[in-house]
């Protein structure tokens, strides 16, 4: 049933290329808006000079000179990056409404109008779910790292090999990440319920998601981790392919941008596959 749900989710993702295209285009436009001020500064200073050739190489002396030159603007740049990160989180919450809405509307046509209509319709409810999940994620990560770190410290102090120290040091992080995926599992099904049943109360949607997952938690979690494994495998392929990209000159910039956009499209496709597979699994167990 899990494999069937993942296959159905992948098939649904392939049947909605318009959704992937809209997500990709909005991400590109958002990224360009964030990067444009920095790109403009670099182009004005280095676009027509020999120094521009170093933009594709790792030259720490040149990077040091660049940081020294723009040292007075670094606080403003850091503030812009922090604000951009916050906006990106809100932007992701906004797009999730359109993504889940278009996935669950199997008969409906995916267009920019219907997509952004769903984004606006579900943004308030998805934003409240995001705030609750953020609090729980912080508590889970902090509590897990503190508890397992305290339990592992005596064993680490008595360890006789570096491998033991390495495993015990990384174990809290691995467990924390797995628990965060478990938390996100509940919120994914809550988002599906918000859209499928047009549920206005997010806490009720969370309760319904908990009731649904109570008897099938590990199977639903396995589905989540299976799609996550597909994402990791694709990331490994992307990193391997990035090794063949030239490291200097304008070719590096163009090839790097194109290959990076391929990865962005893959990441968005995986997101659609995950929501689609979870929606399919919910449908298969709701009758």
Throw out a few tags for this protein.
287 residues, mainly alpha, 9 helices, 0% strand, globular
Strand content: under 5%
Number of helices: 9
Number of domains: 1
> What Rg is obtained from the alpha carbons, in whole angstroms?
22 Å
Compute the separation of the termini in Å.
14 Å
Beta strand count:
0
Mean pLDDT: 82
Q: What would you note in describing this structure?
A:
It is built from 9 helices and no strands. It is mostly helical. α6 crosses α7 (202-213). The chain has helices at residues 2-15, 17-46, 60-69, 74-104, 112-157, 162-196, 202-213, 217-242, 249-284. The longest helix has 46 residues, at 112-157. The chain has one domain. Mean pLDDT is 82; it is low at 48-58. The two termini are 14 Å apart.
SSE inventory with pairings:
Layout: H1 2-15, H2 17-46, H3 60-69, H4 74-104, H5 112-157, H6 162-196, H7 202-213, H8 217-242, H9 249-284
Describe, in short, the structure shown.
The chain is mainly alpha-helical and 287 residues long.
């Amino acid at each position: 049933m899990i494999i069937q749900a993942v296959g159905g989710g992948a098939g649904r993702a392939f049947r909605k290329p318009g959704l992937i295209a809209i997500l990709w285009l909005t991400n590109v436009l958002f990224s360009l808006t964030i990067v444009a001020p920095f790109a403009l500064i670099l182009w004005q200073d280095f676009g027509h000079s020999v120094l521009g050739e170093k933009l594709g190489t790792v030259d720490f002396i040149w990077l040091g000179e660049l940081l020294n030159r723009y040292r007075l603007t670094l606080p403003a740049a850091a503030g812009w990056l922090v604000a951009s990160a916050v906006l990106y989180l809100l932007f992701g919450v906004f797009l999730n409404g359109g993504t889940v809405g278009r996935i669950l509307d199997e008969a409906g046509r995916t267009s920019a109008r219907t997509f952004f209509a769903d984004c606006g319709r579900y943004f308030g409810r998805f934003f409240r779910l995001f705030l609750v999940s953020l609090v729980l994620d912080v508590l889970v990560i902090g509590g897990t790292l503190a508890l397992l770190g305290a339990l592992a410290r005596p064993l680490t102090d008595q360890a006789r090999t570096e491998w033991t120290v390495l495993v015990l040091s990384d174990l809290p992080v691995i467990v924390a990440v797995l628990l965060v995926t478990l938390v996100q599992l509940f919120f994914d099904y809550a988002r599906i319920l918000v859209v499928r049943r047009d549920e206005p109360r997010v806490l009720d949607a969370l309760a319904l998601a908990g009731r649904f997952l109570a008897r099938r938690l590990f199977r639903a979690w396995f589905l989540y981790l299976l799609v996550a494994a597909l994402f990791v495998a694709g990331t490994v392929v992307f990193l391997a392919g990035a090794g063949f990209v030239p490291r200097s000159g304008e070719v590096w910039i163009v090839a790097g941008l194109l290959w990076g956009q391929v990865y962005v499209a893959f990441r968005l496709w995986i997101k659609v596959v995950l929501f689609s597979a979870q929606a399919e699994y919910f449908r298969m167990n709701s009758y």
